[in-house]
Structure formats: structure tokens, C-alpha cells
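Researcher: Here's my situation. A collaborator sent me these components and asked whether they could plausibly form a single complex. I don't have experimental data yet, so a predicted model of the whole assembly would be a useful starting point for our discussion.
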Amino acid sequence: QVQLVESGGGVVQPGGSLRLSCAASGLTVSNSGMHWVRQAPGKGLEWVALLRYDGINTYYAESVKGRFTISRDISKNMVYLQMHNLRPEDTGVYYCAGGSGWLAAGWGQGTLVTVSS
Amino acid sequence: EIVLTQSPGTLSLSPGERATLSCRASQSVTNNFLAWFQHKPGQAPRLLIYSASSRATGIPDRFSGSGSGTDFTLTISRLEPEDFAVYYCQQNAHSPLTFGGGTKVEI
């Protein structure tokens, strides 16, 4: 059974940085596509980033390109989202998801990021 | 970017009734890589359907997906009380991956 557990959320000022972590079990990040997806308060789901199984190819939503970086640590079976230059519109619950190819088959419970002064 | 438009925005139904949710893409989705997710407040989203019509592991057979190209449908044959939630379609064929705006199924 896939289990993904996010951590690292919190309150940060505009322009600040934060790193989210996702611990995976029942799924090997080295052969899975791993995603970050977010949900702003009262809004729908928004895809943020994807790290392909090869660990080399990454894809980002236009809204975060150049500010966010997705990466992984195979030895720890973990995935990360480094976020810089945060904006109030980045506020929301961030979910880690993963699966075969580009399919987000398994999801975590999410971690809340609040960007506010 | 492929834009996904879901309709209706809200569906008001009773347990035992049939629910039909629509997802229309602004351009053809390659290989019909279209997925459906169920999302309840405070919970992780759950994959229901992938590749337009394949049920994910453990999903009851009252959930079914159909369609191809630009028009896709999620059908719940007989609503159970636990099915009242928000449903999203997502295309996972082209970057950026995109979600539809969601359909809320309420009592």
C-alpha cells in the first residue's frame, strides 16, 4: 500500500523560502513519477511540478517556474519541493503524489503553506 | 496548455440515483490519458479512473469512465452516502498537466 507523508509546511513572509518534504513507502521514488499538487483555500486542485522516474526530467506549472524546484533523495526514498520568492497566491495545502509514468496514483494528506506578512 | 472544463459545477442528487459528470478538453488528449479523482475535505484525493476508462485498484464497479479525444464522462451508477464529494478530471498526457475545475456532488 502506497503511503506518502508530507512535512515542512508553515507560515512564511512574502519573498521567503520553504522546503517541503515527502516520505514515501510502498512506492519507490527511483522508478515512479512524483508530483506536487496544491489547493488554495476554497479553490480546486492545481498541478505544480513533476519529477520523472529518471530523476532528470522535471516539469513545472508556469506559475511556479523559476521559483520552485522538485528533487529527490533515492537513498531516503523522499521527494522535495524547494520554494523560493513565495507569494501570497502560493498559499494552500500542498500534496505529494506519485505513480507509474505521469499518473498520480497515490497521494499524501498534504501540508499547509501560508504566505503572509 | 490543455484546458479541462467540467460540468455541471454542482450536482444535487439523492443516494441511489445515477450521477453523470462531464469533462471536456480544449484539445485532444493523447492516448486518452485522462484520470478522475475524488476529493473529500481534509482527506487525500483518491484516484478513481485512469486512461479514461480503467478503474484504479479497490474502486467499486459503480464508478465507470468513458470517452475519448476531447469528451469524457464519469458515471456513478447508484450513489452511496460516501460518494458525496468533489470530483476532478485531470489530463496526464501533456505538460503542463491540468485539472478541471471540479464537480461537487451533494445531497
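Model: Some features of this prediction you could bring to your collaborator: Chain B has a mean pLDDT of 97. Chain B is about 0% helix and 50% strand.
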